[in-house]
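User: Hi! I'm a student and our assignment asks us to look at how structure tokens line up with a sequence. Could you show me two examples?

Assistant: Happy to help. In each example below, the sequence comes first and the structure tokens follow. Example one:
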Amino acid sequence: MSLTTKDGARGAAKTAANPALKKIWITTGVVVVLALLVLAARWWRGTAAGEQFITAYPGHSALPEHAPTGIPAWLGWQHFLNAFFMVLIIRSGWLIRTTTRPKAYWTRNNTGLFKTKTKPKKISLEIWLHLSLDVLWIVNGVVFMVLLFATGAWMRIVPTSWDIVPNAFSAGVQYLSLDWPSENGWLNYNALQVLAYFAIVFLAAPVSAITGLRMSPAWPAKLDKALPMEAARKVHFPAMLFFVGFLVMHVLLVLLTGARANLNHMFAARSDDGWMGVILFAVAVAATAGAWFACKPVVIRALAGMSGKISK
């Protein structure tokens, strides 16, 4: 082997090793920072100032007097559908991001209710799947919003007092100290939960929907300057990562803070220690997993072919 060849091989090996080494350093740094935060939170909780603060702000803000009690049945199936579509949207979005050369394309049938003057645009099957799921998710979200405000349930996830800020800080310290705040989601979410749900429903969801629409063929050309394509792309992917992070933390906390009671609240609309919520949760996970693995070209092609022409 020549000297040039050896140098090239060493350079390639060094280049390949650098990303792995970088990930190790980042992971180590995150673990160290989390450990320091845990130690700091435990120390502060042990001080007189920390005890007084958590006594004054236990981590829950009081709900308005006329706020509804408990979790209604409609929220159970809404919770499942929102999570179901969200997971599949993430799946289809990742397919778009990782597919370099689509194997097939879809062109909408320009007939019936969806007939337009302009010729329909041809899009890849991956984009068709993503946009179709987006539409279902948005429709379900509109139903959710209507029910949320019609029943007064919005008061459970919208901050109604400024003490949400110190209570959120208190809840965060309690989580970090590994002595978690008392939970009773049937009556009231803690302040961090309220802020997280508010951010998902009223901030992240609209941002994802608008930026996704901007990148779709349905976006009106006359509004291009109002939201440039490049700006939409820069926002849309981080929004997806935010949803992924929320889902992971949400599921972990549900399972670690009284799984049976939490799942009964979320899926069975009941406040007891029965197993109905666990059973419904298992069915929901199975349905979501089945749909995840069903996102194959043969399945997508068959579904897309019902509303348009498939071509290469």
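Example two works the same way, sequence first and then tokens:
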Amino acid sequence: MKTTKAAKSTPVKPVAKKAAKKAAKKAAQKATAASGKATGVAKKATATIKKAAAASKKAAPAKTAASKKAAPAKTAASKKAAPAKTVAKKAAPAQAAPKKAVVESHAALVRRARRINRELAEVYPYAHPELDFENPFQLVIATVLSAQTTDLRVNQTTPGLFAKYPTPEDLAAANPEEVEEILRPTGFFRAKTKSVIGLSKALAEDFGGEVPGRLEDLVKLPGVGRKTAFVVLGNAFGRPGITVDTHFGRLVRRWQWTDETDPDKVEAAVGALFPKSEWTMLSHHVIFHGRRICHARKPACGACPIAPLCPAYGEGETDPEKARKLLKYEKGGFPGQRLNPPQSYLDAGGIPAPPLGAG
């Protein structure tokens, strides 16, 4: 029985081996085919990469050429633009930054304006008219002569004039050529001679040789406008008036009390900020400050006692040491405008001006 079973099972092993070999062969063939396909894909990918590289190489010279062509154009444009930029840089300092207006109510403006006047009154307690005079006639003549010249030059000239022509009647009858020679140092001497002789004739003929004390009468005199009239009324008759000279007009605009330039409009605008009783001394305070500290071209901002109240602070020198060198101040030893100043000015350290031809 055992022998029979063994004989039957023997042929099975060769069949199994053959089947296994066939399966292995097919699997190998499939693997080879798959690897071939993968290789083909890889080759295609490599070819694509090569094509892209070639294309980039072709594009590179074009890009370089284009950039090279563009570069000179850019350089040329920048070269052309450069001088304009340089000019703009040079021109920039000439363009002053716009001034910011002080935004304040009318009540705040009145308070600030009056505080400035109080501060100036403490700085210049000896403020006074800077024309030498002994009577209303001398003051009105001196004020007419002060047009387009300094008070100092007028004060140096009038002693000789009044010594020769002490009254309106004397000057009215004077020889114009002789008067011209005396007034020559004041400039515009022919026109001024005509004015003072005509003024003297009007005083002698219409007012009995006396200077009138009313504004409406004063402005009728030859060479006398509102400014001159207020100088005479305020300083010879004690009647309040605002004197709008170049210093006064410049400062009140810097302080933004008004932006008016016409003297009559400046007078009205500033007069509305102060009691009438303060007008005459206000004029002296402002004019003194304009001559001594708040100069036209280079104000001494760094040495100004009212700097915190001034909207124009910074227009001038702000360094304290440099600003102090710009002061033209009695207490710094500078002579005043008058040959015969009031005692209060001398007590404050003021020095009288020298006579004509001295020094």
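Here is something you could point out in your write-up. Residues 1-16, 58-99 have pLDDT under 50 and may be disordered.
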